[in-house]
Design goal:
This protein is α+β, with helices and mostly antiparallel strands. It folds into two domains: about 80 residues, OB fold (Dihydrolipoamide Acetyltransferase, E2P) (Beta Barrel), CATH 2.40.50.140; about 110 residues, no CATH class. It is about 35% helix and about 20% strand. Helix 3 packs antiparallel against helix 4 and helix 4 runs parallel beside helix 6.
Length: about 240
């Protein structure tokens, strides 16, 4: 039986000479692995070219709970990401976030609210004409809401330390080693006020931004099982 759903492309890998496997976070089924033909031609109902990082697709799919790999019968773009394809900064941001999401969204749970957040975030990245140098900071913080470990950044007081395990600012040095120094804690506290709408107004030095990104990734690593280093991070550091 065929079903219709929207999906966000996380990543693709070669399966063999004829097929690739696409990891897609779907609106109806959560994260799903789909087999996609590499065949080219105008008559193809599932063109390989559609499966770029963070592409949003309207799909007609087979879905059988007993299968680890599903099939897409037909796919078309839900939105056209022209600027993300032609803008080096946005392209690099898309590659970083697709790798990040591939590592984070491991469970195939149904989450329409999460999909809607991802959909709107991609739409904002495509359409904004403002600086996107802080976009990934906003994205990663907002995503932690859905992952269940959003940090409490509202209660900062001068001189506080950020406890990475408990996700909050404290006045004393924790008994474990997973906390930020006073300088990094103060920089992190600024993110309590940042959003997609105002992100271009926040000015960080390149080194401060690198430190914040690395600390947010460390925070994810502490709260998620098996969260490896991201290969695309160095490219992002070079651009932003």
């Amino acid at each position: 039986m065929l079903y219709k759903t929207r999906g966000l492309v996380l990543s693709t890998i070669n399966y063999n000479d004829k097929y690739l496997l696409a990891q897609i976070f779907t609106e109806s089924y959560g994260r799903v692995t789909y087999m996609v033909s590499k065949a080219k031609g105008r008559g193809s109902k599932v063109p390989k070219s559609l499966f770029s990082p963070l592409a949003i697709l309207d799909m007609e799919v087979e879905h059988q709970a007993s299968r680890d790999i599903q099939r897409i019968r037909e796919a078309r773009p839900d939105m056209y990401l022209y600027d993300m394809a032609g803008n080096l900064g946005k392209t690099s941001m898309a590659f970083f976030l697709s790798e990040f999401l591939t590592r984070v969204l491991r469970d195939a749970d149904d989450s329409k609210l999460l999909f809607e957040f991802l959909y709107q975030s991609v739409q904002i990245l495509e359409m904004t004409d403002n600086s996107i140098s802080n976009y990934h900071l906003v994205f990663m913080l907002k995503l932690s809401h859905f992952m269940g470990f959003y940090p409490n950044l509202e209660e900062y007081r001068e001189g506080n330390l950020f406890d990475m395990i408990n996700g909050e600012f404290v006045t004393y040095q924790p008994l474990h080693n997973h906390y930020l120094n006073r300088y990094d804690s103060k920089a992190l506290s600024m993110l309590a006020r940042i959003s997609y709408e105002n992100m271009h107004h926040f000015v960080f030095s390149r080194q401060d931004r690198i430190n914040i990104i690395n600390r947010i990734l460390e925070y994810y690593r502490l709260h998620l099982h098996d969260f490896p280093a991201l290969k695309s991070l160095d490219v992002l550091h070079e651009l932003f």
